[in-house]
Amino acid sequence: MSGNSDPLTPRAKLAVTAGKAAAAVSRAAGRGSGSVIGGRVALKLDPDLLARLATHLDVILVSATNGKTTTTRLIAEALRAAGPVVSNALGANMPAGITSALAGGSDAKFAVIEVDEKYLSGVARDTDPKCIALLNLSRDQLDRAAETRMMAEHWREGLAGSKAVVVANADDPLVVWAASSSPNVMWVAAGQMWKDDAWSCPSCGGVMQRPGDDWFCGDCGFRRPTPTWALSGDHVLDPHGSAWPIRLQLPGRANKANAASSAAVAAVFGVPPQVALERMYQVQAVAGRYDVVQFMQRDLRLLLAKNPAGWLETFSLIDPPPTPVILSVNARGADGTDTSWLWDVDYTRLTGHPIFVLGDRKLDLAVRLEVANQSFQVCETLDQAVQLAPPGRIEVIANYTAFQDLRRRVGN
User: Fold this and answer.
1) Fewer CB within 10 A of the terminal residue: the chain, N end or C end?
2) Do the beta carbons of residue 374 and residue 351 sit within 8 Å?
């Protein structure tokens, strides 16, 4: 326990043991990793277990609508330069999954934890984090999550007076509003491609002015803070103005932004940007995302996109036409059952790509593509779509449960 005395009571130890047993039974039954059920069992036996497990750790929380799983992984890799890390690397990001992850980290120094946006305040209260990274807020799971301004307000209340260093994206007005209640904020210019959720001022409701990369409210004066870290092309600029090259195996501008925020977090714990960024290069894929797999003698690149902001970023990194694209959308509990967000995605960006449509909600997606004047084919299975696709690597873009279905099908 990093030289500390054991913080676990006999009851807590029993809870951890029971949780691990429940997880093992779940895995043996083929029901996934078992982390969620294991955590639920453990918390039932000891409701304070999460707080107990966190006492000997330097905890880093990562929350956002998009990019939190990848950023959690990048931060974890960077911090391994300074000591052992425990992390919920598979994305089980609610209290039960987080408890399961920490139960396996008795010898760790750092805990790098992805947290679902709704649970950030509660998990922060339980784990007393040293650092909290806030990347972005946009619409997602409309049937489950509060609208974005309410979520920003919820974060703001939860962060008020926090002792944690908050590493926050200066380019997202909702994140800035949320983080501004904290006394210790490190601002990162990480960019914001999707702006449609931040045209009204989160402070007063006035209309935001967005000249270039800047933003401000003409009514109340709420404005973009001056960043001390910045993403600049293929480099991270640190507070001293030094430019450090970003070399990632993960594609796209969004992952460079994730790397910039991760470098800022690593610096809080004394890991220099050069060391942090070099370690991030080791990450090739994150829970199957960005993996290139072989299926039916074809190369398929698997890409996860769950909401309008995520789809916009994903479209920016796929290979150009005439690369074939498979789109798959479900609307199960983990996705959110409301698919109205499809109408906020600019599918004209796929013009010139042969498109194949799958998933439980393939007909919803087909209607949206029809209105966007895209040519496409509706398919019943991945196998059928791959057979119909013209030669070349296939880009496969799917939302959450559709992505998991595809991974199972290709044996990934």
Assistant:
1) N
2) yes
Residue 235 has φ and ψ, to the nearest 5°, of -130, 155
The SS3 assignment for 364 reads helix
Task: Sort 289 into a burial class: Cβ within 10 Å, 0-12 / 13-18 / 19+.
Answer: buried
Compute the Cα dihedral for 303, 321, 330, 371 and give only its sign.
Answer: positive
The CA R_g of the chain, rounded to the nearest whole Å, is 21
Q: Which residues of 98-129 are buried (b: 16+ CB within 10 A; e: fewer)?
A: bbbbbbbbbebbbbbbbbbbbbbbebbebbeb
pLDDT in tens, the chain (412 residues): 344 445 688 888 888 888 888 888 877 887 777 778 888 888 888 889 999 999 999 999 999 999 999 999 999 999 999 999 999 977 688 999 899 999 988 899 999 999 999 999 999 999 999 999 999 998 775 444 447 889 999 999 999 989 999 999 999 999 999 999 999 999 999 998 888 888 889 999 999 999 988 999 999 999 999 999 999 999 999 999 999 999 999 999 999 999 999 999 999 999 999 999 999 999 998 888 999 999 999 999 999 999 999 999 999 999 999 999 999 999 998 888 989 999 999 999 999 999 999 999 999 999 999 999 999 999 999 999 999 999 999 999 999 999 999 999 998 7
d(CA 43, CA 103): 11
DSSP string over 142-174? TTTSPPHHHHHHHHHHHHTT--SEEEEETT-HH
Please tell me the distance from the alpha carbon of residue 112 to that of residue 131, in angstroms, as a whole number. Answer: 9
Contacts of 17 (CB under 8 A, 6+ apart): none
CA–CA gap between residue 101 and residue 334 (Å, rounded):
20
> Is the torsion defined by CA of 280, 281, 285, 290 positive or negative?
positive
